[in-house]
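Late entry, written up from scratch paper. The run itself happened at the end of the previous shift, but nothing got recorded in the book at the time, so transcribing now.
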Amino acid sequence: MAAFSLSWLTSPLSIVIIVSLVIGLVMVVLFGYTSDQKAIGIAKDQLKAHLLAVRLYRDQIPVVMGSYGKILRGTGRYLKLAFMPLLYVIIPITLLMVQIDRYLGQTPIPVNAPFLLTVHMNGGDALNDATLNLPDEITTTAPAVHIPANNDVVWRLVGAKEGKYEVKIAVGGQTVEKTVCVGNDLPRISTVRLRGQFWSRMFSSAESALPQNSPIESIAINYPDRDIDIAGYGMNWIWLFFILSMIAGFIFKELLGIQI
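Output as recorded:
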């Protein structure tokens, strides 16, 4: 029974549910501490009053037009009050989601399932000089395919055993590595390793940068996307997280009496 409970807690669905609840709570509390709650409450009450005036005096055009103008000004005032608190909330949550996506965005390569390793070069003779050095657990299933138009060389590989492995690509007298995850666990997955491109690496790569003097610009693996099953419907974890965290945020907002 304990083993079953532990396996449920470490399943992708349970992780998303727990993270969504925690983030929903943190989001509301952080917004409450960083915002002017009294001013937000007044701004929202004024907006409600102007909206009510539009409904009550809809036959009096001057009053309605004046109320619409006040609604626009009131909306701007509310957005001004909420902007910085939302910024304090959004930035850390975005960075956290990037890290969580390393574990939940893709699945490891299934054992004995073919996958592609794509190496993108900066041109020149490097495309024809690249060689691949594999661990014993990973083998090639077809000759390398060279795509000169894209400066790419592609290998089709297969992993015979679960685990995390390093494949090595040698070109121009240099050797670089790319991590490959095989199995069905929840490892930290990096779909691509990049040279430079700081912002791209921050959001799309979980590995260190390739050497600046390397002829290789990127090394990518086509990991399968992970879908979380909800009532027979596969859903990306980010959409599920967004829905659940918003629901949790509204619930905690009411429980804690925080104006948003």
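Confidence is low (pLDDT under 50) at residues 1-5.
(Scratch paper discarded after transcription.)
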